[in-house]
Amino acid sequence: MKETVLSGIRPTGNLHLGNYFGALRNFIKMQYEHQCFFFIADLHSLTTHPKPDDFHGNVRRVLAEYLAAGLDPEVATIFVQSDIPEVSELYVLLNMLAYKGELERTASFKEKVRKQEDNVNAGLLTYPVLMAADILIHRPTKVPVGKDQEQHLEMTRVLARRFNNLYGQEIFPEPTAFNFGSDLLKIPGLDGSGKMGKSEGNGIFLADDEKTIHKKVMRAVTGSGPTEPNSAMPESIQNIFTLLRVVSTPDTVQYFLDKYNDCSIRYGDLKKQLAEDIYKLTLPIRERIEAISADNDYLHRITKHGAEKARESAQATLKLVRGAVGIKRF
Ligand code: AMP
């Protein structure tokens, strides 16, 4: 069944291979199978007070990276959150239905309070309400969410239900998590443990150049090679192979597996191959990132077109919402 799917993108950090293989590639596939809305959540980023000089640049960079990687503005609706004023109005209305206690109990709020204790603004507290407004304004049925966002999606359902019950109309469907099932890959970092992340210092970014990729991969933790044939692989080597599997050909993977199993592997060669294949895979994306970032007319056209489509959908919802709440024009 064709679903309406919506996903927000945080305008922070550069995209790394984890984002690409773990999420973005699924979005790229999904956009041809469902009706998809993707938006850059720039208003959300104000909860951490980015500098005005960085604000627009962050949106530009992230948008260029997603477009370069393959989000297709011809098929999906791609827009910037602040271009849709209807979201802010729905946010105000939903805030009247959200309770202080339930907002204070969300795990992400508690974490933010710990992380930025001198900036516990109301926007942080009501972050799940803005997220609910982002989602509900398009009345989607599915939202692809990471583990950290599951609680927010539950909050979205609670608010949708509360609204529908209070006003006695089924305006909002209750969206559920989009399940990628076995397509969900976990990309490890280069530090021998854990997953690749933007702040862990263990990532390779789509925008990294050849030299940087090479340097990062050659520094990856490997340890000494196996001494017994067919011995169990330490986690750090498994991680290298996981990366190799996503960027290299099956023949290449098999070649190095055989070498591991007969103890003739040289980790320097393995890493050199990995670096080369990451470079080959990311080069066209990096070139497109550079071209798109520099093309203001293109970005203007895409975001204008996206905003028009998104506003059409948002205005239809807001009309129903205003009617239900009792807001009327004289
Ligand atoms: P982040 O910007 O770190 O919040 O990541 C955005 C999304 O990218 C997450 O919700 C995940 O779906 C995906 N992602 C991030 N890091 C990885 C990783 N190392 N492996 C797989 N998926 C990842």
Task: Write a structural description.
The protein has helices at residues 17-30, 42-45, 52-69, 85-95, 100-104, 107-115, 122-125, 127-136, 150-167, 210-218, 235-247, 250-261, 267-294, 296-325, and strands at 4-9, 35-40, 77-80, 142-143, 176-177. With 330 residues, it is mostly helical. The chain has a three-stranded parallel β-sheet with strand order 1-2-3. A two-stranded parallel sheet has the order 4-5. Helix 1 links the parallel strand 1 (4-9) and strand 2 (35-40). It is elongated. Bound molecules: adenosine monophosphate. Adenosine monophosphate binds at residues 10, 18-19, 22-23, 146, 185-187, 195-198. Adenosine monophosphate is lined by residues 10, 18-19, 22-23, 146, 185-187, 195-198.
The CATH architecture classification of the largest domain is 3-Layer(aba) Sandwich
Span of the ends, CA to CA: 42 Å
Strand line-up of the largest beta sheet: 1-2-3
CATH topology of the largest domain: Rossmann fold
Question: Main β-sheet, in a few words?
Answer: 3 strands, parallel
Percent range of helical residues: 55-70%
Q: What structural category do the secondary elements indicate? A: mainly alpha
> What are the secondary-structure elements, in order, as H or E?
EHEHHEHHHHHEHEHHHHH
